[in-house]
## 1
Amino acid sequence: MDLGLKGQVAIVTGGSRGIGKAVAKALLEEGVHVVIGSRTQQQIDETVQELSTVGSITGFPLDVGERESARQFVEKTLELHDRIDILVNCAGINFRHPADTYTEEAWNRVLNINLSGVYRMCQEAGRKMIEQKSGCIINITSMMTHRVNPNQSAYAASKAGVAQYTRLLAVEWAKHNVRVNAVSPGYIETELTKGTFANEDYARKVLELTPQNRFGKPEQVADPIVFLASPRASFITGHVLAVDGGFLAGYPHLNVVQPAN
Amino acid sequence: MNLDQVAVITGAARGIGKGIALRFRRAGMKLALLDVDLPGIEQWTRELAEPGEGILAIRCDITKEEEALKARDQILKQFGRIDVLVNNAGILPPLAPLEHVETNHWRATLDINLTGAFLCTKVFGGAMLDKGGSIINIASQVGLVPSPGRGAYSVSKAGMLMLTELTAVEWGSRNVRANAICPGYLETELTAQMYSDPEVKRRRSETIPMKRLGSVEDIAEAAFFLASSQSNYMNGEFLRVDGGFVVGAVDLSNAIANGVVDGIGGGIGSGIGRQS
């Protein structure tokens, strides 16, 4: 694409699979040095090996649920590259239960990774960006930031929280020349969603509600993220951008039976 | 980007329309440039290297369906296709409090800014149906938040955002996607005079979290991104290109000292407060 990103340094949390991996790949293709973080060493190794043919990629263990892990990850990144230009927070989890029986344990785990994990990484990497007087953060929000699907109370609350946290950081850190935005992916085909989309009933309903009538590919989410990270988007901050084939616009009328005339 | 691609841009004589046209041309796209001010288009296109190449300039009043249809036929005859439509033509009515807004100004603003965008969508967007295309509507940050004194403009731009979503929903399955850009405060040839007063420029920049005005290039890059295949799963969305204005124009934090607790949470709250 040549977006003016060559030589920059990016951290991608949750970068060993799914959308995070696609983001890592797209950044590598732009000549960015990428450092991925994940909880599973094997996955880190596999992804680093696979993508090292594309560009400069390293991986370290990272549990965004633990402050010390986040701190050490950023420290190792700085030892290697001496700067951080881009942070993409893709790490996230979900547990589905009805709201009336959603347990403390499940709630706390989801909020700790999805919302507090973003907070920890933004602080650890943001500190360096503020010192550099330059940086760009992109958080991953969700269709559940904007619409409701039952049984995801913790996930919905966490992703809505990430959206507003994104806007707040954008406002507080604009004076440090640090831009902060978020991307809400629609229904995307990844190894993680393959299971849920195998349910034909569910897949059909989702496709009917998506104006483009197809699931997205991870690259189709990665490309807008890379644009937002680039100097081409230097006046864009505090924005939550949906990449969803039109799902948000189509909800609910696209699949609601209209009354007969 | 496919070098055979053809973009139709309305309001192309100056400002954002001209800026987008120049960006698209750099990428090798063919351009159909529409405006009520044809000499205005020709004035800048004749300065280009190879001015005749891949550019069709048409005088067109987008509030008149017959003129849009005539332009469409001309474009298809010359280039054979339409791949991108940029609905940029628009007017800014004079400042007036709501109770004193001239009704004909209100009607004219809605007619050009909103109905014109609808007509272009119907005529030029319609030519893209099933073949494939991308519609880019140039709205405004004041389509998201009211601009007192410019009621018709705000309403027309809010309408444009709904038109964007509607187009995205109805045409998403027919290979056409529609998105919008909400520009913030920009320094352009049109606003240059207003901002030549450094105090006016400073006061305006202060309201923007990034503390500077945007440029036509910021909008042109966003438009190019929305026209390109890099955004092809984006549909019915808008890119807010405003330096953070809509979310952060007002800073109320000075009114409250840091570390002060709101009175909820008692002991825990005051402990956290002191650490900050």
## 2
Amino acid sequence: MIRFEHVFKRYPGSTPATDALADVSFESAAGEMLVVGGHSGAGKSTLLKLISAIERPSGGTVLVNNQNVGALAQRAIPYMRRNIGLVFQDQKLLYDRSAFDNVMLPLAISGFPPKEAGRRVRAALDKVGLGNREKAMPIALSGGEQQRLAIARAVVGRPGLLLADEPTAHLDPGTAHDVAEIFRDFHQVGVTVIVATYDTQLFPGARRITLDHGRLQ
Amino acid sequence: MTVWLRQHGSALALAWRRLAGAPTNTILSLLAIGIALALPAGGLMLFSNAQSIIGKVSAKPQVSVFMALDADRRQARDVATRLGHMDDVESVVLVTREETLERMKSAQGLGEVLDALPTNPFPDALVVTPRDDRPQALEGLAAQLRRLPKVEHVQLDSAWVQRLDALLRLGRMAVMLLAALLAAGLVAITFNAIRLQVITSRAEIEVSRLLGATDSFVRRPFYYFGAVQGLLGGLAAWAIVHGGALLLNAPIAQLASLYHLDFVLVPPGSADAIVLLGLATSLGWAGAALSLREI
């Protein structure tokens, strides 16, 4: 499903010239749950950004479903992203619209028929335990609820691959545990899940790789 | 196909929501666009109306012969008879000074002025329709007429018509130039409005891109925003021109009656309206396109 071959990433203008990722090679099979650990600044976010083609590698190849996403034409990237569910570190919710409309956005982008889309949005909100909050504005939701809303938006398009960047940061241990549980549920129904987190203990039983200053340990 | 239609529909709906969501901005923009378009549209309306009158008038060039004030009616009739026998003259109409006075008195505001005058200031006049209406022939005829006894003044009516026509052509050209400048202004207005929209929707644009939105998905609502704003601005311009024509019609009819013209200001017809709205819409679209080059 995902293969990194000697991947390097250096951001332009970084001083001193350091690699965010250096010679990273690993493979992850379809349906696997992979936890990427490491200290802050180890390159976890960069790794996820390379998979979702938000960034391109400076060297090496990143293959997703045997497709070299680093060499993808700019115009092909949107369609490739629609097969990936993304949960961002800063959530990136839209605060000017309801929970329902936030989750609706990916379906609107791919041009879903509104009726079917509405059913899917409700199903996704139910799945993360926000079934009764669809009219709430994100600002009215607690930190844990906002994180679950972000997850609902990531999975509403039923992607085969779910990427999450520090999904339990800023959450109290109980809430963090609940959120981790949701990812395990998706893994159990066959979704490939990759979670970048400093707290790998939250995902027992998942395969684990650890980054240290851009290198795999 | 249905996906395509649906996405265009929702982009249009979003553009509409954005316009309705900031009513003050929207109304001010529409006013600016409306005025910018109404100026040249109104100018062109006035000029084409004026030219249509000239078309009517100049179809038959005439020569006005004014008798001296001390000439009596008999002398005027003599001159008329002599003119009637001339080869170059098709017809002659005698307009007596009393008729002229009555006509002028019926005009608004002039009645009191004329009453205040001790004597009738108007001379008897002869309106001559020449057989040959080429400028040189007219000049020759005028020179002949000037030599007649008790003739004070001979005026070629076609001369002022020609001068006015040239002046109107110049005016039309100036309005066209103004239209081009104001069209550029309209593009600038839309450019700014869209730029502002893009800045306020930055988060939405970024998130949409991350979730797999194509460039056209992101840009589409802004294109519609520009086009709809242009269209509504065009409607505002049309309303302004029509309202202006309505207000001007009464005084213009008054003025026209002084010249014995049956004339009302004809507002732009539906073909003109379609051109105006189409132009406004495409200029709005162009402003949006200019604004969206960098996102």
